[in-house]
Specification:
mainly alpha
């Protein structure tokens, strides 16, 4: 495991705040997308202060349990803040 991967895993753990749903969503994205993209997504979650159960709620309720929708919703939040 390289330093970037280790940093990303630590950020995932911190962002999930021990919430099993949050870490599940982030883990699935980590396994399915390029590492640079995951880093960007985690940075947006951190910037927009979406953490713990809010990650799970965004995925489950607002993104209809769809990872592509979840990612689009997170990235849209970043665009709205700029």
């Amino acid at each position: 495991m390289n330093i970037m991967e280790q940093d990303i895993l630590e950020k995932m753990i911190n962002l999930s705040q021990g919430n099993p749903g949050g870490i599940t969503v982030l883990s699935e994205i980590y396994q399915s997308y390029p590492i640079e993209f995951v880093k960007r997504l985690l940075d947006v979650l951190e910037k927009t202060e979406i953490r713990g159960p809010d990650i799970w709620v965004l995925w489950k309720n607002k993104s209809n349990k769809n990872y592509h929708e979840f990612i689009a919703n997170v990235l849209a939040l970043d665009k709205n803040q700029n």
